[in-house]
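Lab notebook, bench 4. The sequencing result for the construct came back, and we need a structural model before the next group meeting so we can plan mutations. Quick request posted to the team channel:

Model the 3D structure of this chain.
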Amino acid sequence: PYWTSRELIPTYVTLDAALGVKGSPVNGLWFNLSGGYKITENDFIPLGLLMGNGPYFADVSDCKTKVFYGTGELKYDYKDSWNVYLKGTYYSWDGEGPYVSVTPGYEWDVYGLLPEFEINAGVGVKVLDGLKVNLGYECVKRQDSDSYDPISNLYAGADYALLKNLNVYAQ
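Done. Here's the predicted structure in C-alpha cell form:
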C-alpha cells in the first residue's frame, strides 16, 4: 500500500511471470536472455518529478498497468580479477487510465515517465585480496522522450569481504 493525499490505496501485483535462459558458452563468459509480463492493480506513480515540485502522487485507484519486458545481459569474469557487464531491458507498457488529475483542470500523462529502455554497463576490478572496486553507467530512456530527458547515472562502488560469507559494500 502507498499513501496518497486522500487515502491509503493498496497496490497489488496480480501477475509477475518471467522465462529465460542463462548459460556460459566458454569459461568466464555468461549470457542471460529473459522476457516477462507483469500486471499491477492501482499502480503507484509519483508526480512530484513530473510537476517539478512537492510530493504529489497520482490518485491511482483506477490505474492498472501491464508491461511486457525483455532483457539481455552479457558478463565476462576473468579469473576473479576483473569483470565487465552489459545489460539492456526493453519495456512495452499498456495501461488503463493513463491520465491522472491532481489539480482540477490539469491532466498528466503519467505513462510518459515510465521507462521504455534501460541500459547498464560496468567494470569491476580486484585491487587487493578481498577488495573490489567498480564503476558503472546506467541510462533510462522514457516512454515520452520528447517531453522528458533520459535518466543518466554514473556510479562507483567498492566491495570488501570481511569474512568468508560476509561482505560489506558501498556505492
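The chain has a mean pLDDT of 82.
Will bring this to the meeting.
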